[in-house]
Amino acid sequence: MIYCGECGALNDEHSERCRVCNAKLTLPAEESISADVEYGRTAGSGVARRYLGRYILTVFLLVLLASIAWAVSHIDNQSIANVSGPTPTIPSEPAASATVPATAVPTSVLPVPTAEPTFTPPVPTPTLVPTPEPTMPASDDVIVAPSGRIAFSSDRPVPGRNNIRKNRDIYSIRADGTGLVRLTGESSFDGMPSWAPTGEQIAFVSDRTGSLQIWIMNSDGSNPYQLTYGKIIAQDPDWSPDGKYIAYTLGRDTGIAKIPAKGGKPIVLTDLSYPQSAPAWSPDGSKITFMGKPGKYWQVFVMNADGSGLRQITHDPTDHRFPRWMPDGKRIVYNTRKSEHVIGQIFIMNADGTNVKQITMSTEGENGRPFPSPDGRYIVFNSNRLDNNWEIYIMRPDGSEVKRLTNTIGDDFEPCWSP
Fold it and tell me: With left for phi above 0 and alpha for psi between -120 and 50, is residue 383 left, alpha or beta?
């Protein structure tokens, strides 16, 4: 038997041409038999060769798939056994000649899709700008309006009373000029008011019991009671910042004393051979300023609160009267007087007597009894600059922004600002 070399058909050994494709048969009978026995080696010709190629390809693919499966399984086992270990290396893809179906690749080697993260826009970190320390406005700051109440004395007529010139009463008014209230109405002299540091009481001077003595009443005028007694008069009270004492003028300018605000024995602070009057406590309560007359003119003095350390800080040949501390404790405001009967102008100076400045104008009448507001932005004073009638005014410490608070047929004196 002879196999056709072209189509592989089996032909009779005596045939010269293939009975199927009519190709010429060239192999002898023994070679045909040998080829039949060694089919695997000679099948490259014809059908047998194609069958062999398909067989080899199939075996190759099966081996390749088995290798990939083993590798993937090995990687998964290593990943499970070594969770914190190094990231396993994924085998490289097979050569392009060996096409692997997509379904043959285990899902364990594919990246597991994770949920899409929600995008949150980053919050910008604000640039921190240091906030400057607040600066206290200057005393001439036009934005800050005066506040509180001002007490003063007045000889204006009181309805229903037999008014005589020596009668005075105490009033209070808001710093904006509204809310006038009369606090006393006796047929006597009631004047020289001084607020307690709490603002709840007012010390004042009255002769309703025969001689000028210091009294205390509530800030609405109720519950008045007498604090000092005796033949020696007491006047010009000034409450200490801690509310424990009231300093005052002993007698008719004979000395400076203090008395417990709740009552008790007076304590004499000065023992001088010349007149002294109108004491005023420093804001911290450590010192007292007052006016003294060592010669022809009244001058300003400063001493410790116990009477020690006395110093005269003015020396000009004119009267220096009614000194008061500014709230900063570094300056003193006072008024001058040209003669024994004419009050002059208001000045401000350092607490050691230097840097003296006049803050009212000589062309604007006579001005006196200056009293600064608690914040130091204003000064209240009495003046006769209009119609020669004494009224209450406020101004800035530099003399600007003058405003009239009272307007009456009587005279208003001795203003003092509430705490």
Answer: beta
DSSP 273-290: SS-EEEEEE-TTSSEEEE
How many degrees, rounded to 5, is the angle at CA 271 between CA 310 and CA 318?
60
Pair 347, 359: CB distance under 8 Å: yes
For residue 194, what are the contacts with CB-CB under 8 A and spacing of at least 6?
202, 203, 204, 237, 238, 239, 246, 416
Which residue ranges form the domains of the chain, and what is each CATH number? 149-417 (2.120.10.30)
Q: Which helix (H) or strand (E) holds 386?
A: strand 379-386
Give the global pTM.
Answer: 0.67
Q: Where are the beta strands (DSSP E) in 222-356?
A: 225-226, 234-239, 245-250, 255-260, 267-268, 276-281, 287-292, 299-304, 311-312, 319-325, 331-337, 343-350
User: Which of 228, 208, 207, 225 minimizes the C-alpha distance to 216?
Assistant: 225
Task: Give CA separation, 344 vs 109, 122, 320, 363, in Å.
Answer: 106, 71, 9, 11
| Residues 43-81 pLDDT 10s | 444 444 555 566 677 777 777 777 776 665 554 444 444
Pairing mode, strands 276-281 and 190-195: unpaired
Give CA angle at 307 (382, 238), nearest 5°: 30
Q: Report the C-alpha gap between 323 and 348 in whole angstroms.
A: 9
Lowest mean pLDDT among 35-39, 75-79, 330-334, 413-417: 35-39
Length of the chain: 419
In this predicted model, what pLDDT tens digit does every residue of 168-180 receive, in sequence order? 999 999 999 999 9
